[in-house]
Amino acid sequence: MNLKKMVGIESAKYVKDGMTVGLGTGSTAFFMVEEIGRRMREEGLSITGVTTSNATEKQASELGIPLKSIDEVDHVDVTIDGADEISNDYHGIKGGGAALLFEKIVATYSNKTIWIVDESKMVEHLGAFPLPVEVIPYGSDQLVRLFNSKGYNPKIRRQDNGNPLLTDSKNYIIDLYLEKIENPKDLATWLDHQVGVVEHGLFLDMATTVIIGTSDKGVQTIEVSR
Ligand SMILES: O=C[C@H](O)[C@H](O)[C@H](O)COP(=O)(O)O
User: Fold this and answer.
1) Is 84 annotated as contributing to ligand binding?
2) CATH number of the CATH domain containing 37
3) By three-state DSSP, how is residue 182 classified?
4) 21/96 same-domain check
5) Domain count across the chain
6) Per-residue pLDDT tens over the stretch 95-148
7) Residue 81 near ligand 1, beta carbon < 6 Å
8) Which of 29, 40, 69, 144 could join 24 in a cystine, given CB atoms 3.0 to 4.6 angstroms apart?
9) Under a CB-based contact definition with an 8 Å cutoff, are residues 106 and 147 in contact?
């Protein structure tokens, strides 16, 4: 079986009747949402979903999953989401699909955060995957200059027509081609303090469980202790 599908199905086992579930975004989370939809149809599972992007909202609505916004719930029991890279100390980079802002908000209010990935996402150090930074359009070229001056190799993410890609919140994404992030916490703190930066794709100390799909050993589940 496709490794993304394997972990998507496995992760849906963590969803129990009555839960409020954060529904992640991307090609791996897609299979988790499909499996929750199947369990609702075939097993009578009843949940409330909180989506992390317009794309997931559309998918979940089409499956008939009842949805609430993050502001309508007092907490989320569990959020299940993909990741672009996970380091050996279980920090991650997210936002390859430009959904990092809502994903980080939903994960912040979740009791548990489960990441589902195929084995190609597991790395020793973060940074080979370009780090997405969501910025407001106003002043974004100034941020590009600032990132350049720090040697962060920034590129505004663009659509096929050359225009900047717009996130669900109508912001831009600047991808930082860092190759290796020596100190993710220092970089996250610095980015948190730059005017015009809305959010960045460093998700540190957020995952409580990581489910990895491997071709030789099947599904591996790691409970992260912090
Ligand atoms: O913005 C997108 C999200 O952070 C995704 O969860 C991440 O990019 C992983 O996506 P995929 O499962 O498609 O590789």
Assistant:
1) yes
2) 3.40.50.1360
3) coil
4) yes
5) 2
6) 999 999 999 999 999 999 999 999 999 999 999 999 999 999 999 999 999 999
7) yes
8) 29
9) no
